[in-house]
Amino acid sequence: MMKVTHAMVAFTAGYLLTSDIQFGLYSVLFGLISDLDLVIGLKHRTVTHSLIFLITTSILAGMVDRETGIAAFTGIGVHIMLDMLTKSGVQLYWPLKRRVRVAKFSYDGLLPNYALILTCWILLIYFRAIREIPVTGEILRFS
Q: CB neighbours of 97 closer than 8 A, spacing ≥ 6?
């Protein structure tokens, strides 16, 4: 998956859960942390794409602030799930070597990435519009 796809899906998940832009942005931050393995020289989609990393990071972030811990769980969890949609999968149960994936075909191409990004935009626009529709007794009065 492309980084922009990880960011967009993490933001959408965080924002739709809370209606809070800041929470969505924290979800993006944590959603991109999983790819630090590329920067620090670890094998990709191993330790930073595991349940151990997800739970440990969420607990540590939660010690700072409860909402930060939930944003960490959301962002990293979404990242791991997206990478499970790729052909190579992730070592979800690291340190075990077994890779986990959702399907036997790859979502690594541009079209699936753009489709996910477009779906996120549609969801964000749709749910933002719904939240701005006034629902009062006047509108719902049946006379």
A: 91
